[in-house]
Amino acid sequence: MTNHEIKINFEEYASVDELNKIDKELCLEAVKALKNSYSPYSKFRVGVAMRLQSGKIIYASNQENVAYPSGLCAERVALFYWGANHPDDPIESMAVTAHSDEFQIQKPVTSCGACLQVLAEYEKKQDRAIKMLLYCRQGPVWVATGIESFLPFLFFEDRLNN
Ligand code: THU
Questions:
Q1: Overall pTM > 0.90
Q2: Catalytic residue (choose from 29, 75, 92, 123)
Q3: What residues does each domain of the chain span?
Q4: What fold, for 11-151?
Q5: For residue 161, is pLDDT > 80?
Q6: With contact defined as beta carbons under 8 Å apart, do 120 and 135 qualify?
């Protein structure tokens, strides 16, 4: 038996003011995206702002449905919109923030496995790692670049072949 250990790296900033100007700006844009969250069931708003190489910013938020699994997380709303509309303009960074109508969120929201898998696909497609800025307005900001910081054992299509 061999025991393996995987380490992941991320940076923690005490507040958004410690980030560089361009990353701070993207975090504040993610807050704007909270407004269009459609989350009557969870009352948990998630906002995303995604910066493309051209400088364009894509906004997205979670969109829920009375048939719960038909809803979609903010991250995948952003990523699929990008794939459908701007596939040749690489994604540089993605800021994610959240707001609950019912309690104060104390630490950054980390994306679900399905969103990470979609992120992995597009990182590979554009051959460029994406900087994730996980922004908590009442707490720290966590920053990591590249999907493997979040999902070290992710599934890639090369596993489908010998
Ligand atoms: N949600 C996101 O949009 N992104 C995440 O990273 C975590 C969860 C949404 C899905 C659902 O609308 C609500 O938050 C509660 O799970």
A1: yes
A2: 75
A3: 11-151
A4: Cytidine Deaminase; domain 2 (3.40.140)
A5: no
A6: no
